[in-house]
Hints:
Structural class: alpha+beta
Main location: cytoplasm
InterPro entries: Arg_repress (IPR001669), Arg_repress_C (IPR020899), Arg_repress_C_sf (IPR036251), Arg_repress_DNA-bd (IPR020900), WH-like_DNA-bd_sf (IPR036388), WH_DNA-bd_sf (IPR036390)
Shape: elongated
Strand content: 15-25%
Number of strands: 6
Order of helices and strands: HHHEEHHEEHEEH
GO molecular function, one term: DNA-binding transcription factor activity
Family: Belongs to the ArgR family.
Strand order of the largest sheet: 3-4-6-5
Pfam family, one: Arg_repressor
Amino acid sequence: MKNERQDMILEIIASKDIETQEDLREELVNHGYHVTQATVSRDIRELGLRKKMGSGRRLVYTAVKDANMTGSDSYKSVLQAGILSMVPAENLIVIKTVSGVAMAVAAALDRLEIDGLLGSIAGDDTIFLAVKNHNYTEKIIKEIKIKSEE
């Protein structure tokens, strides 16, 4: 049953833009798989699904091996498409993003392990990056720009 369900997930995301776990759960229900959000979350993790920019600059689930994207390619894609502006503010960096993309951008930045970047807080279209001290802010902004262009 689990393998069949996970095969169905791969079919669904290959044929439709699925933005959220709830969207995926509803599609599974429509295909006769009555599952909880926790089950969908586990399946996503086990299948190694990632988010990439879909149509309309929306993040949608994709199977990395099917999309021929590595983790760094996926992060680059999210950073390129999502970041609108970055402004230093003492030991913070305020990043404006496309609406609905801030959490994905913040997650990508956290995974890049940039020296001096302590963590992030994301809303819908704004991210606050906590920086070790104000001496790091410009360096981190430059590194984010480089990472998104590599």
